[in-house]
Amino acid sequence: MENEIPFKELYQQGDRLILKLYSDDIFEGHVADVGENRIELVNVKQHNNKNILSTIYTFYRNEIQTIQQLQERITEKQSASTSSEKVEDSSKIKLTDLEYDRLKDMSRDYTYIDQTDARYFQAVELLSRAETIGVAPLGVEKSRDGSIKLLGVSMWDKVYLFDFVNQRSNFQYKELQDILETEFTVKVIHEAGPLIDILYRKHKIFVKNVFDPQVVDLIIKKKETGSIPSNMSDISDLLTDYFNFPSSYLQNALETKDSKWTQRPLSDRRKGYAAQLVTYLIALRQHMERKIFSEMYEAIDNVHNYYYSLDSFQFASNWKSRNTPKEIEDVIPNLGKS
Predict the structure, then answer these.
(1) Tens digits of per-residue pLDDT, 129-185?
(2) Gene Ontology cellular component (predicted)?
């Protein structure tokens, strides 16, 4: 690591860290001991391995590429004086540890479906009631004649993997088609253009109500920098940019060759990779929307904080009145104007 600040000045016992090594391996655990150039972790998990490693692991500065720290759970409402003065710490994962663990567990607890049995009908029943789902195709050749080998679909708390390898040329999952075509459900699909084109041209499925993180990322970056990046981001790039995940977090999943997604039986490891690619989409959409509408959310927070600051008499008077207080006028932005 280039940063030569002693580790013992940055971290303390009990901190939960995610370490990316120069080997691209990723480990997470709680700090047991820390020195100037050494970190010892307990309750260690290696990324893509759900088992907790039983011993203490020691890592040295010369083998560590990056360190991210998981935030503690938020248990109290932030005070009105500090809520609009937050400074982002680039070393911290931008999810609470509770949310990080929920998503991690969700990616491991997937349901694999390769026929229209009871599991399938239970899955589509739940998906049909969801307001938002994540969708990720796997193994699609980079051509208009490409076919889907596996389709990951996520809800807020579940992941389903629909296998298409043994399907005939027409789209066999009729109920899933209805979900893709309904305007009621938002589909979060990264790099959605090719999938939407293939589904329409090959199967006459017109996917509606799509949120594409790749496109939204371009909007955000153009707003922030005034220009469009020369390269469009993959899903791993976005998890790094918006959640501060290690850059190789989804490397194994993204580097799996299309031909590997055709092989059957599909290994548990490969199923796990597929689940990872769809798990974070809904959380990513939520985070990106808050970023796009940051001025709106900041104004809402500021108005709420105004009420927190009032004494009881002022509170009652303002609530009874329909007049807009000057303090609220001052925090309402002119959206779209520089």
Answers:
(1) 999 999 999 999 888 888 899 999 999 999 999 999 887 666 789 999 999 999 999
(2) PET complex
CATH number of 97-289: 3.30.420.10
- List of residues 6+ apart from 291 with CB closer than 8 A: 220, 242
Domain ranges of the chain: 8-69, 97-289, 294-330
Predicted TM-score (pTM) of this structure? 0.83
Token reading at 193: 């253009």
Among 1.10.10.10, 3.40.50.150, 3.40.50.970, 2.30.30.100, name the CATH number for the domain at 8-69: 2.30.30.100
